[in-house]
Amino acid sequence: MRRRTTPESTPSPRPWNAALDGLGFGGDYNPEQWPQDVRLEDLELMREAGVNVLSVAIFSWATIEPREGELDWGWLDETLDRLHGAGIRVALATATASPPPWLTRKHPEILPRLADGTVLHQGGRQSYAVTHPVHRDYALRMTTRIAERYRDHPALAVWHVDNEIGCHVPRDHSDAAAAAFRDWLRERYSTVDALNEAWGTAFWSQRYGSFDDVLPPLTAPTFANPTQQLDFHRFSSDALLDYYRDLRDTLREITPDVPVTTNLMATAHCRGMDYFAWGPELDVVANDHYTMSADPERHVDLAFSADLTRGVAGGAPWILMEHSTSAVNWQPRNTPKAPGEMLRNSLQHVARGADAVMFFQWRQSRAGAEKYHSAMVPHAGRDSDLWRDVVTLGRALRALGEVRGSRVRSRAALVMDWPSWWGSELDSHPSQDLRYMDQVQAWYRALWRLGVTTDLVPPGADLDGYDLVVLPTTYVVTDADAANVAAAAERGATVVVTYFSGIVDESDHVRLGGYPGAFRDLLGVRTEEFHPLQDGESVRVVGKAVGGQASADLWTERTRAADGTEVVASYEDGALAGRPAITRREVGSGRAWYVATRLDDAGLGALAELLVAEAGVGPEVAAPTGVEVVRRWSDDGATSWLFALNHTDADATVGAPDSPVAGVELLTGDAVEGSLVVPAGGARVVRAAG
Ligand code: GLA
């Protein structure tokens, strides 16, 4: 894989929103799907809604180049000129998101493959092997053409590379991928002996004599080598990132001052790409998030995604590149959003760091696979509640323009780690039921319910500013990361580690001497055996830390507490009755807690409350259950914007005598003194001094 940009040569492009007054508002614009009269009406409607940024040409390769070498730029020239005339800025795509039919027919070898050899054919989208040199050449050629044609276009604000890279094909098992995997392994291990050592190939006669013998983990008679699987996850994320970088570097050579991004899918549902490695490669982080209509707590899932995006962006403001105005078309049952939900969703993203709110897509398609996916302009047209809501949202975002550039501050960190996600869910483990994200989300939800604003960070992050650090199922741990976590406790933080953490090193080799190896000394516990529970089995956990008594399932451990480690909750029944379930140890100026089981919601809630109190990271402003309060701060800390989002069906009051809210409410212009009423299902934003 090519690496062309060195840190020294990285240009500093202008900010993506340099030419915007306030927040960005818009969506994916696909005029190639529509006749001229509709395109003209688009401009009128965009003006009415106050749209100021659009993503253009994402899926336009086959329209621009219907036959190889035959280029039709007319419609795109006209689109950009018109948008510029209307004062709208453009996130211009590389048009590479889906290769045109002529390309896959001419070069079927660029099609990706599943582990069982199934070829993913053209006819949907994203049917390309991200590592294939032929595809890469064509994609770079298209990128170069677009960049050269529009390099000086005044509408150009930011380059949008491809689209949701890895969305449908996070891992490709084609021959091209196999060759690239071998190159990646050569770079990682240098010698085949080092690879053999890392992969533990003395087991099951897997010893490799040469890198040439190595394959991706293809469908095999039984479990594939776990380190091979883990490395293939790492490689696949890197290969997709390498594709992004290659296109980005091509754009940078032509337009060094234009920022480059791509739309990530930093959500609890996107396992393929290690976005903590991706973030630093984007000039501005952009994300796509869709709520799951069947999830009654979808606003918590949204908050998680927004916080993860902010973590990937290193705390900087980011672009919400896509979400939906109402229903999508790809869930089993696609319920529309409730009245007020779109506005609340949008402002929730802004509250958590977004400087732009964009949608898929501007106008709802009348043909194709996404025609039942909502858009800013619905099938029903302008005379619709949805359109009126879009106009209202535009107005709200204009009223909030001043929050742009401000940042969220948090003293609680939840550690999220893609290698642990991949590693903890490998086959041939103590329990097939363990789901990494289930633990991460359970802890996030518990903190959200307590009104704690949480940063999502990787295990190697600078943990200095955090008083509470939670590591759910952090399975793969390097020595450096283990030391980083221990240092946070020494320095005074409350550190919480949960089951199946610290088990293996980066090669997926077990850390010997008792679990959880990497954190054994920090936590002052030693586990001799895991004791996962059968499906449907649960045990009772007793102790003040879980509110007296709680239920636990999935996982228990035969754990012993060392001298000086306090057992704060134990199992009351089951095979491990009387054994520690939760422990606590004083470490330096801080504390280290171990939670060896999966607690039910109430137990976890009680424990989280205790931890939040111990760490002193509770919310600054009192709010009723279901009302979310988040603050963004100006750089100098002189001004803050308090966002209050009422996810309940009843009007709510935020702020209490000991935590008053005062300032100006920006959506209504009202002065606020002491407490703030947030209407049922609504949102309020108060500018406060400090
Ligand atoms: C993704 C894609 C869009 C569209 C939406 C539909 O986010 O990037 O092109 O398919 O999903 O929800």
Automatic annotation (TrEMBL):
Top enzyme category: hydrolase
Recorded catalytic activity of this chain's protein: Hydrolysis of terminal non-reducing beta-D-galactose residues in beta-D-galactosides
Family: Belongs to the glycosyl hydrolase 42 family.
Name the UniProt record assigns to this protein: Beta-galactosidase
Domain (Beta-galactosidase C-terminal): residue spans on this chain: 626-687
InterPro entries per UniProt: Beta_galactosidase_C, Beta_galactosidase_Trimer, Class_I_gatase-like, GH, Glyco_hydro_42, Glyco_hydro_42_N, Glyco_hydro_b
Keywords noted in UniProt: Glycosidase, Hydrolase
Domain (Beta-galactosidase trimerisation) ranges: 411-617
E.C. number: 3.2.1.23
Superkingdom classification of source: Bacteria
Glycoside hydrolase family 42 N-terminal domain mapped to chain residues: 28-399
Record Pfam families: Glyco_hydro_42, Glyco_hydro_42C, Glyco_hydro_42M
